[in-house]
Amino acid sequence: MRIDIVSVFPDYFRVLNLGLLGKAQKRGIVSIATYDLRDWTHDIHHSVDDTPVGGGAGMVMKPEIWAECLDEVLGDNEDANASTADASGSTVDVPILIFPNPSAPLFTQETATELSCSSRRLVFGCGRYEGIDARVPEYYRTVGRPLTADHGENAPRQPIEVREYSIGDYVLNGGEVAACAMIEAITRLLPGFMGNPDSIVKESYTSEPLLEYPQYTRPTTWRGLAVPEILMSGDHGRVDRFRRDQSLAKTAVIRPDLLGQLECAKLSKQDRKTLIALGWTVNGQHPRKA
Ligand code: 6GU
Fold first, then answer.
1. Per the confidence metrics, is the pTM higher than 0.90?
2. Residue 167 CB less than 6 A away from ligand 1
């Protein structure tokens, strides 16, 4: 997967060179490039923002700077000819353009899973201040990216998929941290990224909306605190059941909204018993607090 990131703080993304993601880049599973939006400014102050039309607080990022930059990044399409000529009609090489935006749909595990296989190329546009002029996403969604080296207004263009996502109900100073979170969630799902792909299968949110059970390692007693006995029994059936019950109990307390998303029809007899004991009703489509 190729990921391009546009920001006024390209240094922010140095964190992506650490740990597993850094290794994945060295191994060629993902390649990440950053661009400084200010390189596309023309004035001596390198200004990227202006006051909002209609008044109000804060500053809005100027559409023409963003478009000159994105035309160049999105127009660098070693992919375009291959994918449009692809007999199968595959669009997997056409970039998906993503704008982190606190006033957008929530980015979830499902979004990460879908994006990890929808395109081999993602471009992130990270805004600061009060955000980017709203015509920028609209333009690439409807008019599109340039298909030739000519980036002029009359150049042939191809509309592309444009997404906007928030990572949660709180406000950050800009899209950089949100982009890092999304990139980490997406890339760790790429084939070959994980040494042991099993570690993805069982974690929170992956197959159903449940929080993960608590994990322990040795020493089995530490500072007077013991690991639950069952985990040392060697009885895999009982260990699995214990962990499943811990997941259900933990989710009931911390995220009851998630329990309400479970499908009753998919719950085992033992799951139902546990939920009933936790004070939930499981006879409808979804569990409800009794
Ligand atoms: Cl995507 N951007 C900003 N600025 N704040 C956020 C966010 C995004 N998601 C949650 N808060």
1. yes
2. yes
Select from 12, 166, 169 the residue to mutate for testing ligand 1; criterion: most ligand atoms less than 8 Å from CB: 166
Judge whether 151 and 139 are in contact, CB under 8 Å: no
- Tens-digit pLDDT profile for residues 213-225: 999 999 999 999 9
Confirm if 122 and 115 have CB atoms less than 8 A apart.
Answer: yes
Sequence-separated (6 or more) residues with CB below 8 Å from residue 147: 75, 77, 80, 155, 156, 157, 158
What CA dihedral angle connects 274, 201, 110 and 267, to 10 degrees?
A: -20
Domains identified in the chain and CATH numbers: 2-200 (3.40.1280.10), 221-289 (1.10.1270.20)
Count of other CB atoms within 10 angstroms of residue 277? 11
Residues of the chain where predicted confidence (pLDDT) is lower than 50? 81-89
d(CA 193, CA 20): 8
